[in-house]
Write a structure and sequence with these properties.
- By secondary structure, the chain is an alpha+beta fold.
- Helix content is 30%, strand content 24%.
- The protein has a domain of 158 residues: Aldehyde Oxidoreductase, domain 4, CATH 3.30.365.10.
- The protein is globular and about 95 Å long.
- The relative contact order is 0.13.
- The N terminus is likely disordered.
- Keywords: Molybdenum, Oxidoreductase.
Length: 793
């Protein structure tokens, strides 16, 4: 178990709801985003994009665009032939075909929004006017749109060079699944289609780049990204230069949710054309581009089977997960970030030892699938939890009691597939959610409402969230790579503290929470700590922020580094105080001798001695001063909890109103409870959108029809009820400080709770919910089908 830190401090910042220190800057409009970057002589870029889902490029005529006053250049794939291909495959994933693309389409376009050419002009408006004047002659081809049809041997190929549309087929099993299903008293089968959604952050993507032709050339790139160092690692080989000749700077980022941890064609095209043009270039994505050509997520057809005994004991799970991968394999995480994540965590918090899954990842002529909040855990959770409710109805069991009957205990637990949970409150979280919706009296209220012609329902969705994405957790989740992060802590000569980290903040409040950790460890006021991140030249190496990893990795790496600096400070203070280091304590920036009031020395004096004290200082201080850098890669950490939803369905219109939504979250020791609640609330809102609203739609000819926020709907304050946010703290058994991650839990759990509540409300009609989003049109159709079935019988 985690060792308790008993060193004295006048105040512990960790665990307190300290106000976010970055908010005054951001709320007063003093944030600095990519679009705020302005460089002398800068040009603006606009991309010519395909209007077709699949077509041959016959000719590109840029003469009219080049004749427009203010347009400086138009570049096509032929001008960028010196770039290396962008390749998506291992080492990030095993078991997937290598899939490469050119940053601009060459002979064929493969989805609506595929970039074909880029126009440079003196203003963004002139660039857009020039873009509209580029004449591209296409030969439309029949698109591949149905992922199941794409798996058929006679399907047209999205990329003929691969020889197949299925870029990955994986299977894994544990126990004796066939025996368990053969001996089962009851088998429930469900096919569930999780809809196609995306992140749609307030700030779209953006890239600014300049090229300096010295010593072989150097690129400086400002990008709206979650992972500056990883972006550099993938961009540099495409540009054909060492990483040391590329600087990635990611200033303030207005939301990301996973979309901005993908490497996009624009990330290499903009620096490439900055080199060709000899001038800095800026590109800011518009909303249509963001929706049509960013990354999509969670479009998955899930077939779920549960074997059970007559008493409700679940004995085996079997799942088949087909991800509609889109036209390309996203870099670096590939479409397996959805399908494989759904399969590996199939058992979640249930004690089922016989389990099997298979995944397929066919390419189609749609936008690529990539990592967006909750990844494949969301559709996997939907398929499993909706199937469990269906099992409960078929067996005549209470869905809460059925889950509790099959749930794992609170201690460290190894799943059938080998993931080792670090302890949690699995049953307790479900019971807490049950009590919060007053489940004991709900059925009476439901029956009374039905007598009045109103249909209300309740649904539950207990979950396990893999967090703290590091080497151990990544391997457990199907990524056999080393993941670690470093932090550097420096006490400056004036006693202030600078922390640099390779993590990135795009709304999570790292400038606050990481300062809290540092202040506690060093015994200094939090106001004296500055957290620096987001620039590959000034920040230590790190893998970036995604997969609910920053709290765990940030806490561990900072505490290790700060602990080394603290030890040096105490030894320096002991010299100044003429005391034994073991008798010295550092509190609120002042070192003193325990039990001797008034015998103190301020941190600034200690720091000055540390820098300029000559040979009177200890040898390691003479060598390393007051700076320490440490890496950290913990064991597997898993948050858990439960969402519960109460909804009312208007059977005449199909409208769903979420009356109550409870979120019970156990993310271990909380660094800042207010920030934890903010993360959970945001994720829950995202989950409501996935369940009821968000849908990226393609017509039968491949035309993309969700290209604006009038057509792609996500929740506003009118769709999100007042949330009941409850917490439990089960310290991790493996991470420093007992910390777990928190960022994606609500998105994982909320959709299944809402879908189960809708199905519960409509159970008198025999309606089975088998997809998201659950739109009014879909519900009216299901109700009409159910009515026709009753009439026919």
């Amino acid at each position: 178990m985690t060792i308790e830190d008993t060193r004295p401090r006048s105040a512990r910042y960790v665990g307190r709801s300290v106000q976010r220190v970055e908010d005054p800057r951001l709320l007063s409009g003093q944030g600095r985003y990519v679009d705020d970057i302005t460089l002398p002589g800068m040009l603006h870029a606009a991309f010519v994009r395909s209007p077709h889902a699949r077509a041959r490029i016959l000719n590109i005529d840029a003469s009219d665009a080049l004749a427009l006053d203010g347009v400086v250049a138009v570049y096509t794939a032929a001008d960028l032939a010196w770039l290396n291909p962008m390749v998506a495959t291992g080492p990030m994933r095993d078991g997937i075909l290598a899939h490469s693309r050119t940053p601009l389409a060459t002979d064929v376009v493969r989805h609506v929004g595929d970039p074909v050419a880029v126009v440079l002009a003196r203003s963004p408006y002139l660039a857009e006017d020039g873009r509209d004047l580029v004449d591209v002659e296409y030969e439309p081809l029949e698109p591949v749109l149905d992922p199941l049809a794409a798996l058929e041997p006679d399907s047209p190929l999205v990329d003929e060079a691969l020889g197949t549309n299925n870029i990955s087929h994986l299977e894994e099993s544990a126990g004796d699944v066939e025996r368990a299903f053969a001996e089962a008293d009851h088998v429930t089968r469900l096919r569930f289609h999780s809809g196609r959604s995306t992140a749609a952050p307030i700030e779209c993507r953006g890239v600014v780049a300049k090229y300096e032709d010295r010593a072989g050339g150097r690129y400086t790139i400002w990008a709206s990204t979650q992972m500056p160092h990883l972006l550099r690692m993938f961009v540099a080989p495409v540009l054909g230069v060492p990483e040391g000749r590329v600087t990635i700077s990611s200033p303030d980022v207005g939301g990301a949710f996973g979309l901005k941890c993908t490497v996009f064609p624009e990330d290499v095209v903009i620096p490439a054309v900055a080199k060709l043009s000899g001038r800095p270039v800026k590109w800011i994505e518009d909303r249509w581009e963001n929706l049509a050509a960013g990354v999509h997520s969670k479009d998955m057809i899930c077939t779920m089977e549960i074997a059970a005994k007559a008493d409700g004991t679940m004995t085996a799970f079997r799942g088949h997960f087909v991800t509609d991968s889109g036209a390309f394999s996203s870099i670096p995480f590939t479409p397996l970030v959805d399908s494989q994540c759904a399969g590996i965590y199939l058992t979640s918090c249930y004690d089922v030892r016989d389990v099997a899954y298979s995944v397929d990842n066919p390419l189609t002529n749609k936008c690529q699938i990539g990592a967006v909040r909750g990844v494949g855990w969301v559709p996997g959770q939907l398929a499993r939890e909706v199937a469990i409710d269906q099992l409960a109805r078929e067996l005549g069991k209470d869905p809460v009691e059925l889950r509790l009957q099959n749930m794992i205990g609170p201690d460290v637990y190894t799943t059938a597939f080998g993931q080792t949970y670090d302890g949690g409150s699995y049953a307790e979280a479900l019971e807490k959610a049950r009590d919060a919706v007053d489940y004991a009296s709900f059925r009476e209220r439901q029956a009374k409402a039905r007598e009045e012609g109103r249909y209300i329902g309740v649904g539950f969705s207990p979950f396990v969230e893999p967090t703290g994405w590091a080497t151990a957790s990544a391997a457990a989740g199907g990524l056999p790579n080393g993941y670690y992060d470093t932090a550097s802590v420096t006490v400056e000569p004036d006693g202030s503290v600078t922390v640099t980290t390779g993590l990135h903040s795009h709304g999570q409040g790292h400038e606050t929470t990481l300062a809290q950790v540092t202040a506690d460890e060093l015994g200094v006021p939090m106001e004296s700590v500055r957290v620096v991140f987001g620039d590959t030249d000034s920040s230590v190496f790190g893998m970036g922020t995604y997969a609910s990893r920053s709290a765990v990795l940030g806490f561990g790496s900072i505490r290790e580094s700060a602990g080394q600096v603290r030890d040096r400070l105490l030894r320096l203070a002991a010299i100044l105080l003429e005391a034994d280091p073991g008798d010295v304590e550092l509190v609120d920036g002042v070192a003193g001798v325990k039990g001797v009031p008034g015998k103190t020395v301020p941190l600034q004096q200690i720091a000055l001695f540390g820098y300029f004290g000559g040979t009177a200082r200890p040898e390691d201080v003479q060598r390393d001063a007051l700076t320490a850098t440490s890496g950290y890669s913990p064991g597997e950490t898993y948050a858990n909890g439960c969402a519960a939803a109460v909804v009312e369905v208007d059977v005449e219109t199909g409208l769903v109103e979420v009356e109550q939504l409870v979120a019970v979250e156990d993310c271990g020791v909380q660094l800042n409870p207010t920030i934890v609640k903010g993360q959970v609330a945001g994720a829950i809102a995202n989950g409501i959108g996935v369940a009821l609203l968000e849908d990226l739609v393609y017509e039968d000819n491949g035309e993309f029809v969700s290209g604006s926020l009038l057509h792609y709907l996500y929740p506003s304050t009118t769709e999100v009820p007042e949330l009941d946010l409850l917490t439990i703290e089960t310290p991790s058994a493996v991470s420093v400080g007992g910390v777990k991650g928190v960022g994606e839990a609500g998105t994982i759990s909320a959709p299944a709770a809402i879908v189960n509540a809708i199905a519960d409300a409509l159970s008198p009609f025999g309606v089975v919910i088998d997809r998201t989003p659950v739109t009014p049109e879909y519900l009216r159709r299901k109700l009409r089908d159910a009515e026709r079935t009753r009439e026919a019988s």
